């Protein structure tokens, strides 16, 4: 049912469809939010710290199964004095990315509060949640594994999918954002198909994009659709 709806949609409305999904990135100061976004959107890395003031955003263009699709990625400030400005931009987030520093375990403890603040501004169950450990290059494999045990526990409690990345080396960064785009795209498409009279998809079937692994632990190569970053 969903497949025939999708085929019909691609032949008709899909040609004119341009969907933008809002992604909000939150977490303590200095954890590497801006660096993560810059690695993905600009493929660069700056060793010097320049605190984000309030908020900033990037738009990243994708093409998924032949359709243009954009992620609007909001980079928020971790500094307490900017929290008030940043939180004004939490509303309407289809994806919330909660970031901590793998080399600073305290920042993991604060992720629940960041998530709570972001969720307060959004409809219940309307956002995908990710927990991302950054600066993987700074910790040994042993430390990383130990920290990840806690991180995976946190992720389960937060109903989030866990990923570890390094903006410095680029490890997992592209894979992570492709995963974000794939999930947000699929959800947008299902919502769009629901609105087409006589083309009611089976909600929950989720067969637009097939995932190979458990949703809680972030898979490395998990989309079977053609997903291109433009
Ligand atoms: N080694 C290493 N350093 C990183 C990585 N990611 C970020 N950094 C460094 O960590 C510092 C803070 O990074 P930012 O991306 O500015 O942190 P932020 O979370 O955006 O900070 P605020 O804007 O203040 O909230 C910078 O000096 C970065 O160069 C990483 O993956 N590896
Ligand atoms: Mg920043």
UniProtKB/TrEMBL annotation:
Cofactor dependence: Mg(2+)
Membrane topology annotation: Lipid-anchor
EC number: 3.6.5.2
Group of enzyme by EC: hydrolase
Keyword Membrane: yes
Protein's GO biological process: protein transport
An annotated GO cellular component: Golgi membrane
InterPro entries hit by this protein: P-loop_NTPase, Rab, Small_GTP-bd, Small_GTPase
Assigned keywords, A-Z: Golgi apparatus, GTP-binding, Hydrolase, Lipoprotein, Magnesium, Membrane, Metal-binding, Nucleotide-binding, Prenylation, Protein transport, Transport
Pfam entry (one): Ras
Role summary: The small GTPases Rab are key regulators of intracellular membrane trafficking, from the formation of transport vesicles to their fusion with membranes. Rabs cycle between an inactive GDP-bound form and an active GTP-bound form that is able to recruit to membranes different sets of downstream effectors directly responsible for vesicle formation, movement, tethering and fusion.
Protein family per UniProt: Belongs to the small GTPase superfamily. Rab family.
Protein name, UniProt field: Ras-related protein Rab-36
Species of the source: Ficedula albicollis
Upper lineage: Eukaryota, Metazoa, Chordata, Craniata, Vertebrata
């Amino acid at each position: 049912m969903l497949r025939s709806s999708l085929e019909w949609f691609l032949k008709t409305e899909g040609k004119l469809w341009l969907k933008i999904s809002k992604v909000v990135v939150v977490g303590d100061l200095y954890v590497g939010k801006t660096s993560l976004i810059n690695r993905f959107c600009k493929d660069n890395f700056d060793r010097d710290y320049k605190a984000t003031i309030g908020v900033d955003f990037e738009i990243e263009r994708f093409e998924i199964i032949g359709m243009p699709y954009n992620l609007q990625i909001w980079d928020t400030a971790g500094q307490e004095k900017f929290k008030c400005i940043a939180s004004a931009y939490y509303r309407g987030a289809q994806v919330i990315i909660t970031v901590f520093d793998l080399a600073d375990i305290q920042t993991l403890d604060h992720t629940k509060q960041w998530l709570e603040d972001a969720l307060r501004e959004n409809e219940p169950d309307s956002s995908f949640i990710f927990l991302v450990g950054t600066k993987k290059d700074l910790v040994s494999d042993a430390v990383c594994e130990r920290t990840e045990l806690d991180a995976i526990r946190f992720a389960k409690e937060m109903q989030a999918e866990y990923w570890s990345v390094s903006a410095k080396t680029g490890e997992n960064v592209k894979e992570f954002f492709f995963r974000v785009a794939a999930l947000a795209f699929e959800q947008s498409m299902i919502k769009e198909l629901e609105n087409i009279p006589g083309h009611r998809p089976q909600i929950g079937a989720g067969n637009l994009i097939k995932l190979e692994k458990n949703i809680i632990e972030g898979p490395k190569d998990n989309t079977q659709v053609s997903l291109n970053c433009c």
